[in-house]
Amino acid sequence: MKLTEQQLEQFHREGYIFIPEAFSPEEVELMRDAALDIFRKPRPEIWMEKSGVPRTAFGCHTNNDFFRIVAAHPRLVEPVEQVFGERCYVHQFK
């Protein structure tokens, strides 16, 4: 997936772009299901609110096959690399 000139201009002007059609509704539903599966399993990478509601799941791409694939998916990686002009990788910081 390559960004258009308008999308690149928007990114440089506003600092972000929104691409609602990047993933189909069916793919988004699979992501929701995978996220719920991640939050169901107690792990040190899952941070919970005091109420018990999941707050953050660190490193999902390292312990979930679905998100490992999504994190490396060309529809995410190629536009990022196009904007920054270099290879990208997943980095997560608290």
Q: What is the strand and helix layout of this fold?
A:
Layout (H helix, E strand, L loop, with lengths): L4 H10 L10 H16 L5 E3 L5 E4 L2 H4 L1 H7 L2 H11 L10
Antiparallel strand pairs: 1-2
Q: How would you describe this structure to a colleague?
A:
The protein has 94 residues and is mainly alpha-helical. Helices cover 51% and strands 7% of the residues. The protein contains five helices and two strands; from the N terminus they run H-H-E-E-H-H-H. It has helices at residues 5-14, 25-40, 60-63, 65-71, 74-84; strands spanning 46-48, 54-57. It has a two-stranded antiparallel ribbon. Strand 1 (46-48) and strand 2 (54-57) form a beta hairpin. The protein starts with a helix and ends in a 10-residue tail after the last helix.
